[in-house]
Amino acid sequence: MSDVASNGAAHDIWDTLRRSTQSRIGLGRSGDALPTTRVLEFGTAHAAARDAVHTPLDARALAGRIDGLGLGTPLLVTSRAGDRSEYLRRPDLGRAPADGALDVLSDSNADIGIVLADGLSPRALDDHGVQLLQALHQRLRGYSIAPLVIATQARVALGDHIGAALGVDTVLVLIGERPGLSVADSVGIYLTHNPMVGCTDAQRNCVSNIHPPEGLGYDQAAQVVAALVAGAREIGRSGVDLKDMTGAGNQIEGAGPALPT
């Protein structure tokens, strides 16, 4: 086979593989370096990831969008981190509420509390938070829901403080996940049953990679969460003893074509 034919065949194989993943594969070469196109793509992805981390969430605008859907006006809570810079440098401050921040909350005696947290990608929450919230409300119709909360400069553990203040059985934290070079707008949902200050990660369950169409879809994620909520209520705890048996988390929207065998 000639070099031209060989290169063409390799190019076709990589094209097929690329349609099945967001990972950077088969980048090619230009002399001893990467092709200019690939270098520019990398720079663009890196810039998008940085923007996703550093751009603050417009919490009031998000609250207005949620209120417009008839889901109630979310309460606004912030962590002890004063700004994005401090939030990134001091993760511990993002896990605790600012002084007086929880004064807007009261014991709801509800089954579930939902916290929309900016996390490491406020953009992800802005892009997907409302649609994901709608899907959760549909799947959790049989439960009482506490007033919604939007938390800024927030880490996952801030949800423990909020859940305890709301007096809920289970708290769900919808949070922007750390951006990567393939995805900058992914949301994760952390479930903690019987939330209290000092819970460890082993006491939580996480449904991650929510960013349709490439990642998990809204309804698929909500289906998994609903099953986990039911399971947590049945066994009285969440975390390592609670497993997702739905299989919905393995179904990714917009999957690439089947590869030739």
From TrEMBL:
Pathway: Amine and polyamine degradation; ethanolamine degradation. GO terms for cellular component: ethanolamine ammonia-lyase complex; ethanolamine degradation polyhedral organelle. Its main location: other. Its EC number is 4.3.1.7. The keyword Lyase applies. It is found in: Bacterial microcompartment. Adenosylcob(III)alamin binds at V156, E177, C206. Signal peptide: none annotated. Coiled coil: none annotated. Its cofactor is adenosylcob(III)alamin. The keyword Lyase applies. It comes from the Bacteria. GO terms for biological process: amino acid metabolic process; ethanolamine catabolic process. It catalyses: ethanolamine = acetaldehyde + NH4(+). It holds the Pfam family EutC. Catalyzes the deamination of various vicinal amino-alcohols to oxo compounds. Allows this organism to utilize ethanolamine as the sole source of nitrogen and carbon in the presence of external vitamin B12. Belongs to the EutC family. The basic unit is a heterodimer which dimerizes to form tetramers. The heterotetramers trimerize; 6 large subunits form a core ring with 6 small subunits projecting outwards. This is Ethanolamine ammonia-lyase small subunit. The lineage of its organism: Bacteria, Bacillati, Actinomycetota, Actinomycetes, Mycobacteriales.
